[in-house]
Write a structure and sequence with these properties.
It contains 21 helices and twelve strands. Helix 2 (18-24) crosses helix 10, helix 3 (33-67) runs antiparallel to helix 10 and helix 16 packs parallel to helix 17. The chain folds into four domains: 8-183 and 317-346, Up-down Bundle (ABC transporter transmembrane region fold), CATH 1.20.1560; 185-298; 353-438 and 521-526 and 549-607, Rossmann fold (3-Layer(aba) Sandwich), CATH 3.40.50.300; 445-517, P-loop containing nucleotide triphosphate hydrolases (Rossmann fold, 3-Layer(aba) Sandwich), CATH 3.40.50. The protein has 607 residues and is of the alpha/beta class. A hairpin with a 2-residue loop joins strand 6 (417-422) and strand 7 (425-426). Helices cover 63% and strands 10% of the residues.
Amino acid sequence: MSSRKSQDRDLPKAKLSKESLKRSMRLFRYMSSKDRWLFGLGTLFLGITAGASILFPKLLGDMMDGIFIYGKDGVSQAPDQSKLEEIAQYFVYLFVVQAVFSFLRISIYVRVTEGMTFGLRKDLFRSVIGQNMHFFGTQRTGEILSRFSSDIAQIQDTFTTNLAMFIRQILIMLLGVVLIFNTSTTLALYMLASIPVVIIVALFFGKFIRSLSKEVQDITAENNTIVEESITGITNVKAYTNEAFELDRYTENSNYLRKESIKRGYWRGAFSSFIIVCLFGAIVWLTFMGLGMVRDGQMGIGELFNFMLLTTFVGTSIGGMAEQFVQIQKTLGAVERVLDIIDSPTESNDSNNELSSLKGLHFKDVSFSYPSRPESEVLKQISFELKPGKTTALVGPSGSGKSTIASLIYQFYHPTSGEIIMDNKPVSEYDLNQYRKQFALVPQEVILFGGSIYDNIKYGRPDAREEEIHQAAKEAYAWDFIQGFPEGFNTLVGDRGMKLSGGQKQRIAIARAILRNPKFLILDEATSALDSESEFEVQKALQTLMKDRTSLIIAHRLSTIKNADSIIVLKNGLVLEEGNHESLMQLSSGVYRQMIEKQLEPTDFFN
């Protein structure tokens, strides 16, 4: 519960404007026509319950007048029993109306809101997974998750509770003011005379407290960032024994947060005390004036009681409206942030160009800089060809552009200049979904989903049969270690595959690629985490997999590179040498030949 309140506190508010309200009205598009009709019906029920609530003081006042009946000489007379019974019946009717229509209103609002947020979540997730890699490179994971948790929850709470309460309080305030003036115009004017001073002081005080709250929110956000970074990088924290450092960092920030929160608490306490003094002072003053009017025969004791209750109802409604207004402002901000992502263009191009002969890939004068670092050129007008059915190996030090080439092939990013050609057309002209279905990727850092081993292999082709999944595991030489687990294929891999070793994760990733049966295969140091025995077994599986397929291998081990049909040596984003093992070995001063003669791995050689 405290976590939910903390998230709510951190949500920024949006200014109430015509544009923000108009944009928020888009939420009603996520309601079916039936749900919109139900929402209107629920609002009608809300109005009925608000009207019933405001009648409660009136009935209490009438009951008191039924008991305290004064004659013209001021002598109390016996109460009218029949009138009391009649009022009691009205109370029963009032409670029944409140109970029935409150239940109906809440049930309708919950049903409509759940249907609306279902569609909103679905569109949000569709947009997020459809974004390009630049989006994920610039957006923090915590911020994206916040759209699904805090922002959606804020919208949900507003439509089920806050909006209803805001409308209810407006209705109670309006109806209450009308009934107050109808009860006693003189006392109503006395009441209104005390409001401006309180409002003016409250506005200035409230603005000061909001600035303090904003500062506390910023410190809280920084505090949460420390937690997020420490947990995300827990391996580094423990590897460098920096638990004490992180604790000190968190303690220092938390202590600052504690002091600022206490400071804000003092001012909020002072503000609350001011409101209480004003509120109770006004009640005492109005009661004193009202009793004088009762004494003079200008109103009955029941009317005074009715007036004071109505005043309390109106005052409570006005006070509650401020909090509900803040929640609505937060909701407008949440809606804007969610719709900003939903409205962001996705990377799909929906082209009608058909993939047919698949005549390999041709990099033609390709240069590339990451959008976040436009001044740093990773690739510099490189040109080479991935020939169909052949294996190409990329060799070079870290930062030479090998993995970037794989990202460009997948169209995770697009060249800054130059073109990547497939079947005599730029790859950007093909339908992105159909294009990527031709590929399988085994990355250097294998990320597995938190399900079972079976589910992770099946991810390569979700419609695969069980026997195909088992066969893929055997071909990837993963069968034996999978069967070694008590639960076999049903073994849960843990968050990001943390329950498996690096070699086991990599063989599952290879099994996933084998199951996909791709036309193009990209191996980004796919055997780097394997021991010599496992690598030998997996290499045999990969040789079978790469047969008659266009393959790109990014590798550090010479055993993988030597058998490639073509070897491209990269450094600083440039192609230094290109050819097969034999042709490159004939270059007397060639970089590749020196590497082989010294029997060094590519990374060792370049370093």
